[in-house]
UniProtKB/TrEMBL annotation:
Organism: Myxococcus landrumensis
Domain CBS: from-to ranges: 605-662
Protein's cellular compartments: Membrane
Membrane topology label: Multi-pass membrane protein
Signal peptide: none
Pfam families: CBS, Voltage_CLC
TM spans (from-to): 21-45, 83-102, 114-136, 156-174, 287-306, 326-349, 370-387, 407-428, 435-458, 500-519
Record-given protein name: Chloride channel protein
Keywords: CBS domain, Chloride, Chloride channel, Ion channel, Ion transport, Membrane, Transmembrane, Transmembrane helix, Transport
InterPro entries (alphabetical): CBS_dom (IPR000644), CBS_dom_sf (IPR046342), Cl-channel_core (IPR014743), ClC (IPR001807), ClC-type_chloride_channel (IPR050368)
Length: 678
């Protein structure tokens, strides 16, 4: 036994745990916290809604002696004790293994990552069970599940006052954080697209609170955007602490975003597809395992907190005849046009409230503080809620009513139009929230109305209006995000009906293609980042500097590095050609050992790297940086110039940021504040 233990310890000390093998585990941990965030967010919305509907009902509930109901809610809650039985020993075992592994060299990084992931798992377990208890409490005293029945009984003054005060509170909360405006998804897309992969965690928490206030007080917005932003913010923080590379950070951000969608809709496949299609924009084998594990973990946690009941009632529908495909193609055209109108109206309302529209009212509003503008938007949403109750909150309660065909034709038409207008006003005026749920409601109302007409004229060859409501829901989501796979898989998973997949494929494809064409055709021709990188030569951004000779000693080399602006210098070889690069980080291993100073020169510490041509484009330079996993590359001497150069990733980012700032000042933005552009 002694020899066996000794051999086991020796084997553990030889353990190597590189980044790619940790990434799936990190993705699963991020998924756990995204699911927890979805549960916290849903309960925050329920809390704000309960406060909106009045604390008097809470006292009335207690007077009716419903403590027995509360005990039944606790007893029926999904506690899932197996999570603690499995997760706690694994985490404690990882902590023990981190202590057993002998320190030194790359093993230090292994120990640090194991310890952090184990502690995060234990933290998730410690949050899960109190959150389940809170959900059980909220199911008895909250108002988050029967809004369609309770809204008609709200007093008129509360329907006006609650969204107004909610808008004022959100405006006050976000007035000093303009970067948190929008609905969350474009900010994550921009972070991944730029390569920065930085979404601050404090902004994620702030966005969750602000969106809970907006939705709970009656503002027309969805809950998925803040969850996507919050999950990506947590993933960004964890990935940077773990020391992941830029590519791994991008995958981890997609894990957080996909797990947020999975937890919000109880649809793990749709969340994984969303992460790959919308956030990461790639379907490679290396991204599958972390994203899928994150979606599964987020869904498991949200099912325990929010319940396992599907968001949509499982209603059996089927394709009545082959000719019905033509009707679904027409529905796809309608959903594409609706999504295009939604995007344009969102931008128009934003510009109006920001004072960028001609006239007298818009400039006057632009001078008002954000709380005033957001409160005015909430008041407008409250007024529209008098006409259609679907305007209140996310409005997803009415999707089930449309799916079973219980809503009349004129109600569906009015709800579609007013939900579109109210969401644009709520978010465009300064409110916080997502657009997935409102788009789903708009699509369901439009599809139900379209299906009612089609079934009225062709009753024998078409299905009921509920089938068109479900397909319209997927078509609107696909068109708004220009993601047909996300719309298809989301509705296929939520409906649980295999027969609906053919109509979904037709409608989602046509809707997303049409919306993409209309936006690209109408949008100003702004060069993309890829166009800018391919058309800009390296010598336009390179920094000219004298290279370091190969035989320069360590002491003067350190002085040059510490005083250089980039913290990196090109190094020559013995023949006078550029050999590679030396950075400040490479001095850390020898800095504390002064006995090594006389023995080392610049060529000993330099890393051999590909040398860029001054005429090469920036896209080629960034590809080389990604291949070598560095932030700078040396540049060869241009003709007639004695000095060499250095190109850094920071310089490229500054260049792109300057271009975006110029375009924004001229009124054209590559990624809008309220949409995801492809």
């Amino acid at each position: 036994m002694s020899r066996f233990v000794h051999a086991t310890l020796q084997a553990s000390n030889r353990l190597r745990l590189p980044g790619p093998s940790v990434l799936p585990v990190a993705g699963a941990v991020v998924g756990l916290y995204s699911g927890l965030a979805a549960g916290i967010f849903a309960n925050l919305i329920g809390l704000v809604t309960g406060l909106t509907f009045g604390a008097a009902e809470l006292a009335h509930t207690l007077r009716r002696s419903q403590l027995l109901t509360l005990m039944e809610a606790f007893a029926s809650a999904k506690w899932h004790l197996e999570y603690a039985i499995i997760g706690a020993p694994l985490s404690l075992g990882a902590l023990l293994l981190a202590r057993v592994i002998e320190p030194g060299g790359p093993r230090d990084e292994v120990k640090r990552r194991l310890r952090l992931l184990a502690l995060l798992t234990l933290g998730a377990l410690s949050l899960y069970y109190p959150l389940v208890a809170l959900a059980a409490l909220n199911s008895v005293f909250g108002h988050s599940h029967a809004l369609s029945e309770e809204i008609p009984y709200l007093p008129w003054w509360l329907m006006l006052l609650a969204p107004t005060l909610g808008g004022v509170a959100v405006g006050r909360l976000l007035r000093d954080r303009p970067e948190t405006h929008g609905h969350g998804v474009p900010e994550v897309v921009r972070a991944v697209k730029s390569g920065a992969n930085v979404v601050p965690a404090d902004r994620g928490l702030l966005k969750l609170v602000a969106s809970a206030i907006t939705i709970g007080s009656g503002g027309s917005a969805g809950r998925e955007g803040p969850i996507v932003y919050g999950g990506a913010a947590f993933a960004s923080t964890v990935g940077r602490v773990l020391g992941f590379s830029r590519k791994e950070l991008s995958i981890l951000l997609a894990c957080g975003a996909g797990a947020g969608i999975s937890a919000s809709f109880n649809a793990p496949i749709a969340g994984a597809v969303f992460a790959m299609e919308i956030i990461l924009r790639e379907f490679e084998l290396r991204v599958f395992s972390p994203i899928i594990l994150a979606s599964v973990a987020g869904t498991l946690v949200s099912q325990g907190v929010l319940g396992e009941a599907p968001m949509l009632r499982r209603v059996p529908y089927e394709l009545v005849s082959g000719s019905e495909v033509l009707a679904y193609a027409g529905l796809g055209i309608g959903c594409g046009l609706l999504a295009f109108l939604f995007v344009k109206l969102l931008h128009g309302v934003e510009h109006f409230f920001q004072g960028r529209t001609r006239g007298t009212l818009s400039p006057w509003l632009g001078q008002k503080p954000l709380p005033f503008r957001a409160g005015l938007g909430g008041l407008c949403a409250g007024l529209l809620a008098f006409v259609s109750p679907t305007v209140w909150g996310s409005g997803h309660d009415y999707i089930n009513l449309a799916a079973v065909g219980k809503l009349p034709f004129f109600f569906l038409v009015i709800a579609c139009v007013l939900k579109l207008v109210a969401t644009a006003i709520t978010i465009g005026s300064g409110g916080s929230g997502g657009t997935f749920f409102p788009a789903a409601v708009i699509g369901a109302m439009a599809g139900g109305a379209f299906g009612t007409l089609v079934h009225y004229f062709f009753p024998a060859s078409t299905g009921p209006s509920g089938a068109y409501a479900l397909v319209g829901m997927g078509g609107a989501v696909a068109a708004l995000n220009r993601g047909p796979l996300t719309g298809m898989m989301m509705m296929y998973e939520l409906s649980g009906n295999h027969d609906i997949i053919l109509p979904l494929m037709v409608t989602c494809t046509i809707a997303s293609a049409l919306c993409h064409y209309l936006i690209e055709r109408k949008a100003p021709k702004v060069p993309s980042d890829a166009d800018l990188l391919e058309s800009t030569p390296v010598h336009a951004l390179m920094e000219h500097m004298a290279p370091v000779p190969a035989g320069l000693p360590v002491r003067p080399l350190a002085d040059l590095l510490l005083t250089s602006e980039t913290g990196a210098l090109p190094v020559l070889d013995t023949s006078g050609e550029v050999y590679g690069l030396i950075q400040v980080q490479q001095l850390r291993e020898v800095w504390s050992d002064e006995a090594m100073y006389p023995l080392l020169v610049a060529s000993d510490l330099a890393r051999k790297l590909p040398v860029l041509s001054p005429d090469a484009d920036l896209a080629h330079a960034l590809r080389l940086m990604d291949q070598e996993d560095v932030d700078a590359l040396p540049v060869a001497a241009a003709s007639g110039i004695a000095t060499r150069g250095l190109l850094t990733r920071v310089a490229v980012r500054r260049f792109l940021f300057a271009q975006h700032a110029t375009e924004h000042s001229q009124g054209s933005t590559p990624v809008g504040a309220t949409e995801v552009t492809r």
